[in-house]
Amino acid sequence: MRRPRLRFTGQLLLLQLAVVTAVVGLGFSLFGTLLDRQLSTEYGQRALAVARSTAENPVVRDAVARWAADDRAAPETGTELATGAVQQQAEAVRGRTGALFVVVTDDRGIRLAHPDPTQLGRPVSTDPSVPLAGGEEVVEQRGTLGESARAKVPVFAPDGSGVVVGAVSVGIDADVLASALRADLLIAAGYAAAALGLGTVASVLLGRRLRRLTLGLEPEEMAGLVSEHEAVLGGIAGAVVAVDATGRITVANDEARRLLGARIGPGRTLDDADVPAPLRHAISDRLRTAAPTTAPIDQPLLVVTGGRVLVCSVRPVSRGARDLGVVLSARDRTEIESLTRQLDAVQTMSSALRAQRHEFANRLHVVHGLIAAGRSVEADEYVRTLLGSGPLGTLLDGLEAVRDPSVQAFLSAKAAHFRERAVDLRIGAQTWLPELVTDPVAVTTVLGNLLDNAIDAAVDAATTERGPVPDRWVDVELLSDAGTLYVTVADSGPGVPEALRERLFEPEVTGHPIGSGRGLGLSLVRQVARATGGDVWLAEPGGDGSAGAVFVARLPGVLASRGGATAGPVGRPAGSPQTEASWR
């Protein structure tokens, strides 16, 4: 049976315990070694101080000098030494200091004082050459009384001649050093045990925190999750950006960097990453008001950045009661919106062609009737008249003031669509657009949305409290000024309600749902205009009983420069069939 493998957190705990134990053990061993050396030095210096004071004792110096000058044999002097002044002084010093021994010798190394009287008059058991040569030494040696830390110093003649007449050796029992070392090591062992215990507790707590942070996952499981995470983020068609509760980006996929900018990346703040202002404000507001919930914001955000139209949503993320931040998702709607506009143009052109088919059929009936009646001359004149007018010219008067073919076709198609809804689309008399359009997507997006809103307002006016509206119209005026296009759109609708005038361009205020194919709302129109460096504003709210709202758009840099082309002030088309009073 296969033995179950220890989990990673358990392995980490054991490794930490082993490291802590090794560190504490190594530290304890080092401390013990240093302490042993320190105690040996300390007791050696203590023995040296006792030996020096004994060697400088006048009584000892005089007595040692006399014995050094006496040639009597040592065995005959043992009794005299035991009661002599040197032995008494040495024993007194030993009693006061607690030394193991205080030994005094003459210049031949014969003991003149020793704790054991039987050793008096005999040579010392250790080498006395250093002190007898006038030097001092501190060593650990074994003598007749056992192991000790001893200090040896010379005894000089009392006459000041500097002649060495003997030596003093003071020893401290090694058991005393060992007892002091054991006492200090016991204290150090207590601290080491406490450190080991703290290290163990810290390791256990760290292991628990690690399990909590990793949700109990093993390293290979986390590696698999990271791989799956990267694969999922890379496979998502839209942009995904995760922002933590402090406003710092933690996750961003490649699509986010493509749509929102190359500076989007983990570790950056929203300001550092140059996140578009609408998204930055939405994320900041969401972070300030975020509650532990997974509900997204009520209305998707429409953002124009880098020439792209993005549909974004901001969703808070939490785990239990802990707020983790928000996740921003964005989808590129540029191609969809472009195709929607093209489809709208095709639909309006199809409506125009149906109207023209009926018109051509009626004209062919007239020609057929003239020919059947034998009135060929009248038929020929009628055909020549038709060839001179052309079908599109009958749809929209004043279109010749617009040079750009894409704008011409767009307005012609819109005119046919307006006629089907019983709304008259009129070109303002001040329209003057001799340049070609360099950014048709921005122009048709702004112009198309304003016209769509205007026709809806004109149609809705028929059911207002003002009663039936006999004349439903939308006026559009296009003016150019040094590469800047000014668009003015007015309608016969009921105007903008006063409650919506201050919030008209906010993202959540729109008359068309996202994805309906009928425009992206005034919020996006303003963003498109501001992306070109211009703007869109409500010039006149309307609703005074005479006419509807007037919107003005300024689009700089969307026209090809031709030099010398200027235009008058932007306002309502002054030469419109409507009188000035009818405009307001």
UniProtKB/TrEMBL annotation:
<dbReference type="GO" id="GO:0005886">
    <property type="term" value="C:plasma membrane"/>
</dbReference>
<keyword id="KW-0597">Phosphoprotein</keyword>
<dbReference type="InterPro" id="IPR029151">
    <property type="entry name" value="Sensor-like_sf"/>
</dbReference>
<dbReference type="InterPro" id="IPR000014">
    <property type="entry name" value="PAS"/>
</dbReference>
<keyword id="KW-0067">ATP-binding</keyword>
<feature type="transmembrane region" description="Helical">
    <location>
        <begin position="12"/>
        <end position="35"/>
    </location>
</feature>
<dbReference type="InterPro" id="IPR036890">
    <property type="entry name" value="HATPase_C_sf"/>
</dbReference>
<keyword id="KW-0547">Nucleotide-binding</keyword>
<keyword id="KW-1133">Transmembrane helix</keyword>
<dbReference type="InterPro" id="IPR035965">
    <property type="entry name" value="PAS-like_dom_sf"/>
</dbReference>
<dbReference type="Pfam" id="PF14689">
    <property type="entry name" value="SPOB_a"/>
</dbReference>
<keyword id="KW-0472">Membrane</keyword>
<dbReference type="InterPro" id="IPR039506">
    <property type="entry name" value="SPOB_a"/>
</dbReference>
<feature type="domain" description="Histidine kinase">
    <location>
        <begin position="355"/>
        <end position="559"/>
    </location>
</feature>
<dbReference type="InterPro" id="IPR003594">
    <property type="entry name" value="HATPase_dom"/>
</dbReference>
<dbReference type="Pfam" id="PF02518">
    <property type="entry name" value="HATPase_c"/>
</dbReference>
<protein>
    <recommendedName>
        <fullName>histidine kinase</fullName>
        <ecNumber>2.7.13.3</ecNumber>
    </recommendedName>
</protein>
<keyword id="KW-1003">Cell membrane</keyword>
<feature type="region of interest" description="Disordered">
    <location>
        <begin position="562"/>
        <end position="584"/>
    </location>
</feature>
<keyword id="KW-0808">Transferase</keyword>
<keyword id="KW-0812">Transmembrane</keyword>
<dbReference type="Pfam" id="PF08448">
    <property type="entry name" value="PAS_4"/>
</dbReference>
<dbReference type="InterPro" id="IPR033463">
    <property type="entry name" value="sCache_3"/>
</dbReference>
<keyword id="KW-0902">Two-component regulatory system</keyword>
<dbReference type="InterPro" id="IPR013656">
    <property type="entry name" value="PAS_4"/>
</dbReference>
<dbReference type="InterPro" id="IPR005467">
    <property type="entry name" value="His_kinase_dom"/>
</dbReference>
<keyword id="KW-0418">Kinase</keyword>
<dbReference type="InterPro" id="IPR016120">
    <property type="entry name" value="Sig_transdc_His_kin_SpoOB"/>
</dbReference>
<dbReference type="InterPro" id="IPR004358">
    <property type="entry name" value="Sig_transdc_His_kin-like_C"/>
</dbReference>
<dbReference type="GO" id="GO:0000155">
    <property type="term" value="F:phosphorelay sensor kinase activity"/>
</dbReference>
<dbReference type="GO" id="GO:0005524">
    <property type="term" value="F:ATP binding"/>
</dbReference>
<dbReference type="Pfam" id="PF17203">
    <property type="entry name" value="sCache_3_2"/>
</dbReference>
